[in-house]
Amino acid sequence: MAMNWKQLLSSKRFGLEHYHDPNKHDRTEFQRDYDRLIFSPTFRRLQNKTQVFPLPGKIFVHNRLTHSLEVSSVGRSLGEIVSRYLVEKYGESQGPFIAELGSIVPVGCLAHDLGNPPFGHSGEKAISSYFSEGPGLPLKEKCGLSDAEWQDIVNFEGNANALRLLTHQFHGHRPGGFVLTYTSLASIVKYPYESSYISKLGKAKFGFFQSEKDGYRRIASELGITELEPDRYARHPLVFLVEAADDICYEIMDMEDAHKLKILSTEQTVELMLGFFDEEKKQRRREHMASIQDVNEQIAYLRSSVVGELVRECTRVFCENEEAILNGTFQDSLIKHVSERVYNAYQNCERISVDKIYRSQAVVDVEISGYNIIYKLIDQLVNAVLEPGKAYSKQLLLRVPQQYETSAGPYYQRIMAVLDYVSSMTDIYALELYQQITGISLPHL
Predict the structure, then answer these.
(1) pLDDT average, residue stretch 418-445
(2) Where does the pLDDT of residue 104 fall: very low under 50, low under 70, confident under 90, or very high at 90 and above?
(3) Which domains can be identified in the chain, with CATH numbers?
(4) How far apart are CA 443 and CA 445, in angstroms?
(5) Is 57 exposed, middle or buried (0-12, 13-18, 19+ CB in 10 A)?
């Protein structure tokens, strides 16, 4: 059975399912979701998490916070355009929230990177490899972990961790985590299946840990999200818009940052960005650039033009494939179905990014350092929670905030508590803790 917008768009809150607020609010429930994230310390910590390049010195480049804010801005545009299309197509027949996609999509965009550990993908690799090929390898048998629990850990995934962070009841906190609406939560689950499907589908990512499986089942049931196989679901339609906003921002903003850092020349950057346009539009943009003296402003102008073009293309693809999206048969990213010229230009940017940006010395150096820092922290903390009676373990566990329950429950829960703690750290905090527990530096009084 196809999904329908009336059921997919719900203001019911995770953890407050039976609570009804009789008061009228100036903000919609989805605007309240947005504000709840913006004012949270979890979101603020993204300002000290690496996006691609090292945290800024003289030249300010994107971090996870600025990236998430920009993704949210693009997501708002995508949501508003699709909303107008759906309102024109369905009127009010699909419920009162169909006009609010411009408020809902930005929530998913703000939250999409919350589960990423310090040092980006390098941090994810460090966590996974510690268990899959490092000292943590014997722990599956030693701790009696199930196959599904082990797959969660050896394939640690920031996307799944974001759902955990938003819904898990940490010690001393209220049920439901952030208590967001079901629809906002569903919009961030890009890979709506458990970790056991990684090998079955040949994918490298998944959407929820075993600890959040029942929670996602509840969300999917409430919203009428199609279950394709046991614990494997179709995407919620808004996931496509959140994903598109992220795809647009990370690729284009990385190019702009690389230009500022002189990894890419002005000529290279201009050529790459003009590739998104036909000859007539190229000429108009060249004429406008001639009136701008500042080179960085020229690139910023081109960047905004490219973002606008990609927004138009992605919303067109979404609207043209809306029926297939609701049927669960459309599964690609929207970017893959934009016009040939735009997609070729996007792929060209991807190729240059891999060759010139992601393999640049500055980026690789941060990845190597970050990998070793996270690997060491995981090693020390996991050993401490598995043998909490040892003298050093007692000392080390005093450093872990009480919200992370490292000393009670099954071993899977204890290990997940360690991963909660480490993944919540900023790059700077992780570095300082690493230096302290290895004796490289002493704390200042």
Answers:
(1) 87
(2) very high
(3) 5-237 (1.10.3210.10), 239-360 (1.10.3410.10), 362-437 (no CATH)
(4) 6
(5) exposed
DSSP 119: T
CA atoms within 13 A on the CB side of 187: 32
Per cent of the chain over pLDDT 90 is 75
CA 301 – CA 285 distance, rounded (Å): 9
Tokens of 247: 């795809």
Q: In this predicted model, what pLDDT tens digit does every residue of 109-155 receive, in sequence order?
A: 999 999 999 988 889 999 999 999 999 999 999 999 999 999 999 99
Residue position matching structure tokens 């913006």? 38
Question: N- to C-terminal Cα distance for the chain?
Answer: 63
Phi and psi angles of residue 162, each rounded to the nearest 5 degrees, phi first: -65, -45
Largest interatomic CA distance in the chain: 72
User: Among positive and negative, which fits the CA dihedral 216, 221, 225, 227?
Assistant: positive
**5's tokens:** 């917008």
Cβ neighbours of residue 335 closer than 8 Å, sequence gap 6 or more = 244, 247, 248, 310, 314, 343, 346
| Residues 186-219: tens digit of each pLDDT | 999 999 999 999 988 888 899 999 999 999 999 9
What is the radius of gyration, based on Cα positions, of the chain? 23
Phi, psi of 232, rounded to the nearest 5 degrees: -135, 120
Nearest alpha carbon to residue 397 among 408, 158, 443: 408
User: What burial class does residue 158 get, using C-beta atoms within 10 Å of its C-beta: 0-12 exposed, 13-18 middle, 19+ buried?
Assistant: buried
In the block, residue with structure tokens 């999200």:
225
* Sign of the alpha-carbon dihedral angle for 69, 72, 77, 78: positive
Residue type, 412: Y
CA torsion sign for 134, 136, 138, 141 is negative
Note the pTM of the prediction, 2 decimals.
Answer: 0.93
Q: Read off φ and ψ for residue 415, nearest 5 degrees.
A: -65, -40
Query: Distance (Å, rounded) from C-alpha 270 to C-alpha 281?
Result: 14
* Region of 118 on the Ramachandran plot (φ > 0 left; ψ -120 to 50 alpha; else beta): beta
In 91-146, which residue ranges form alpha helices assigned H by DSSP?
101-111, 120-132, 139-142
pLDDT at residue 55 in the model: 54
Query: Which amino acid is located at 425 in the chain?
Result: M
